[in-house]
Automatic annotation (TrEMBL):
The keyword Transferase applies. One of its GO terms (molecular function) is kinase activity. Keywords: CBS domain, Kinase, Transferase. Residues 91-149 form the CBS domain. It holds the Pfam family CBS. This is Histidine kinase. PROSITE patterns: CBS. It comes from Acidipropionibacterium acidipropionici. It comes from the Bacteria.
Amino acid sequence: MRARDLAVKLPLVRLDDPVARAVRVMADEGLPGLVIVDHRDIPQFVLRGTQVLRLLVSQYSDDPALARAVDEASADLFWSEVGARSIDDCLAPEEARRATVPRDATVLEVAITMSRLRTPIVAVVNDEGQIRGCITLNRLLTSTELPEA
């Protein structure tokens, strides 16, 4: 089985999309993370769900005292402040990785990429680097023959 056989189409999220849209796509689709593409549909980053959450709290995460100073009512609405900012504005590049595999990658190559990059989602790309689908960890595991326990 090859990556192209496992890849499924998922909603694309772009660098210039608002953080609120990224969070909504991940929540609505039940995704473990997101593939962030540029205007040419070339994957730039793959973010785990916790990294997407960090986009929401980025203004508070470096200063725990600031988070404690926010009252409960405001803390419940923290995402409304960040929601309009773009992913590119909130993203810390050192935390994001470009997790891609070619369409003809084997299941083992996909598993190794996910393991090495510690990501639950990879982008499947064509020869030009454009996204052709995604493989989630769940899809990988349920599509392969696992040994009986």
